[in-house]
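Encoded backbone
================
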Amino acid sequence: MAKVKTSYFCQSCGYESAKWLGKCPSCQQWNTFVEEIIEKPNASIPDWKNTGSTTQQRANKAIAVHDITVHEEQRYVTPDAEFNRVLGGGIVAGSLILIGGEPGIGKSTLMLQLALNMPKLKVLYVSGEESEKQIKMRAERLSPLPPKGGVNLQNETSTPPLGGGGASGCFILTETSTQNIFKQIEQLEPELVVIDSIQTLYSSHIESTPGSVSQVRECTAELLRFAKESGTPVILIGHITKDGMIAGPKILEHMVDTVLQFEGDRHHVYRILRAVKNRFGSASELGIYEMLGVGLREVSNPSEILLSQRDEPLSGITISATLEGMRPMLIETQALVSTSPYGTPQRSATGFDTRRMNMLLAVLEKRCGFRLGAKDVFLNITGGIRVEDPAIDLGLAAAIISSHEDMPIPFKTCFAGELGLSGEIRAVNRVEQRIAEAQKLGFEKIFISKYNLPNAKQDKHQRIDLSRYTIEIIPVASIEEVFSLLFG
């Protein structure tokens, strides 16, 4: 009789070891190794088309690059414009999408709302966490999305309006066995499958508990084979760890085509859908939703919600022009500088990298002469979002100076520039989109780097046409120049 093969896996990162280890050499976590059965006697590759049998691997032939025919991906355009933007234009047929987020952030609500409002597609929503009655109660609470056109294949001309009949194409299945799920898929033949969640599924080909590294990897592999062979897109909902990473082995993110992160603060009504990995589009796109009692509502103009309505000018508040993917946004950056009551000053940043904040403070102290070494400095990006765009450096530096001098900056002024270590204002990419967004929202002045302006050495097709903007564009070269223009 053949021996059953076992191995030890790290439950944090999926590292495999032949023996038990106290500390994982990959993620440096302690006591995370568990023993799992990795192979049964006489095991072979499971076939999703016939769950009672197995199949052997096919041998593919090599083909020359110029003989490969390339076709445009077939996409299913959903009624949710934010979801389409993050995916790069819609759901690609045969793709495997993984969406992760904290418990209670709204992952299941977003996917169920999407499944209920796709009237031209037959959608199978598989839940291993909730009963049919619970899903029915949530479905009755969710209202249809605003009419923005129904589901259609990309490049189709007709787009029927979205109505209440969208839920007629949504089927609910409460099951955790992949073999039973594939049997229902063969009978129903859905055009989109949603799995909630991948950590609850288990395959009979692996003798591990649901949620273990082996089970998550095997179930994802079976769903991947099904998606690629049948051309049916599959959306997986995944849990995350306390560190914010998607639970399970790291190979899970390598197997799927797209990884989406659904994030936000429980104390804010806004949620952010961010693309971490996307094989069919940009990996830097971002979608914003508003959490209401009747479901998630897409936010088409995020600049309006990220800018607070102030009645009087306040010091330490500036407006910065940033980019998330292809979308320009104006965000409010806040700074508070106060005398430290203790010996060690505090440095805190919400929505911004603390190390970069320390760099900005060092530049202001070295180049502008501000004594910030004994000051408490707090930075905040409003709206609960996190920004990594270096173009907000200039706005944050202006906010710190404004709070330190207790002098407010005019309402209709915004900033777009990167601050260098020598105090120079460096050029940022796609400055024209930032200027156009500021002009659209009624701003009167925008500070940019003078190196973004056209010069004689540039090709005429690369020069910025400043004549088509009504907003006043103020080019600056250094942080000292910005300080003199703002505060004299």
